[in-house]
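P.,

For your records, the input lines for the assembly:
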Amino acid sequence: MNVSTGMRADARDALRDTIPVAMGYLPLAAAYGLMLANTGIDWWWAPVSSLLIFAGAMQFLSVGLLAAHTPLAEIFIATLLVNFRHVFYGLSYPMDKLKRTPARVYGVFALTDETYSLLAGKADQNISGRRITLIQLFSHGYWILGSFVGALGAMALPDSIAGIEFSLTALFLVLTYEHAIKRENLPAVVMGVLASAVAFAIGGKQFLSVAMGVFLCLVLANYPIVSRKASRESGLRTSGSPDHGVDDAPAASDAVPSAAESR
Amino acid sequence: MASTTLLLRATPFLALQKAADAPVVRYLGRIMPAGIMVILVIYSLNGIRLTTYPYGLPSLIAVTVTLLIHAWRRNPLLSIVVGTATYMVSLHLFG
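Structure tokens returned:
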């Protein structure tokens, strides 16, 4: 097989692989583009931010945060906590298949929820490094294209889209639902509500940082209890690896298998 | 935003494999998403005024519809589109 047919086969495979990603990314990115252009920010920031950030939920959030001139430190904290899950994706990313440095760097940059779950599902297949890069490039392309079309749409019909910003709430609601129906997530949901209540009571503009800070404190305060319980349980089950009870869940189970949450 | 996200995505590759594998980090990774999402929902609803007309009704209706549609079909895209459309229509009706 010569190089060009190999390239074409990889491109065809990657295109087929990413059809579900396209279905999710195109409309969601279009909603993002609409929302951004609707706030009065120059429309071309939509495709540019999609090119540079490529982080869905956080990108949606960024519109409101930037429009409100939120301090950089607060944006940093919010991003750190919202996107914390990405720390785990790299653990099962097939980095060994990528030979060249640019491909590796891009592979890390473009490791979203969707590309992660796509690639993690193919980890044991004999998939070429080029196909991996193409999968990520195509996915990134859908995201940029969608936000571009959405921003143009906002230019074309500026009056009829009041309320489009609810797509942000709807996205978060859907993701919350998917977490909340799992029983083991109940403590986290309760702590999230508590932290929000505290931040609400304190008031002020820094709702997001206060709520997330309080939430992190609650979660960390809860850790000794959880780990003691887990080690007791695993001690009953087997005598080996007592500290493993807390982390038996594979990292993959943290990935929300929805097409909506990205980044 | 871009650099923080990239930093997080790069953590396991920057010889921080151990850090990403530590039990407390795994615990955080498991427990955080659900709570953070709850906070984000409340944050994104922060602008509503319950004491003046229309008393947050458009948001309330749209949240209910979004959750019901999602419980029914479990299709994120459908839930988001229908929920947002509901919000836009009810804004119009109460506006």
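Two observations worth noting. The mean pLDDT of chain B is 84. Chain B touches chain A through 57 residues (CB under 8 Å).

Regards
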